[in-house]
Amino acid sequence: MELMYLDESGDDGHGDGASRFFVLTCVRIQAEKWMYWEERIGRCRAELEFAIHLPARRELHTRAILLRKGPFAELRRDGLAITRLTRAIGQLADEGPMEIRTVVIDKQGEVHPLRAALLAQMNHRPGMRLAISDRGRVPRMRQLIRLAEACGKLPNPPIERLLEIESKDSALVQIADFFATAGYLRACQEEGFPVHARIDRDEAAMMIKATEGANRTYCLIRPEGTA
Fold it and tell me: How many whole angstroms from its chain centre is CA 116?
């Protein structure tokens, strides 16, 4: 059985103050490999704490790292921290078997970005799987999955629909957050849309490279419906 860990970047609203893009990333692993990945990511975090003083027991919240907020305020701003972090997570992803799929919705052309991104993830590949995500949007996701199943748009829904977890308790949800943030930065670069003024361009470029790899899929769905 396959486990699907979901996390997002941006918001799915419209109007003043809303983000231009909504990103939903899914990290897929085989269920029997769960313990391996939890332990492997834990070792990686310990190595990063030693190398760049990235707190190993804090939630890996990538946007906060880029902005040097909260527990990440003391990270170096010379690019070394993001370089080491990006390289370490890239190496993790390359070890496999792990599949990372990032769907970016340009909200200028989509009234329901969360639904569009969720269906793109759920319909990506058939088979038995269990979906897991942070608590924030799980109730709405569950409702969207049920509605899509009822009208035939989701012929193979995940078993148990979608389980809730605190992102701080899941190393794999935090990896999904990393790639969702990288996907948002990549969409901004491709469409010429500005990002937060405090995000360093060189660090953003390093993060964007993380979306590229044999086991990583990035898809930007533009207003005209093309990818």
Answer: 16
Domain that holds residue 212: 2-221
Say yes or no to pLDDT of 226 above 60: no
CA 84 to chain centre: 19
- Count of domains forming the chain: 1
- What pLDDT sits at residue 227? 58
Helix (H, G, I), strand (E, B) or coil at 192: coil
117, part of any domain: yes
* Strand-by-strand arrangement of the 21-30 sheet: 159-165, 129-134, 2-10, 21-30, 99-106, 216-221
pLDDT tens digits along 118-151: 999 998 877 788 999 998 889 999 999 999 999 9
We report the CATH number of the domain holding residue 102 as 3.30.420
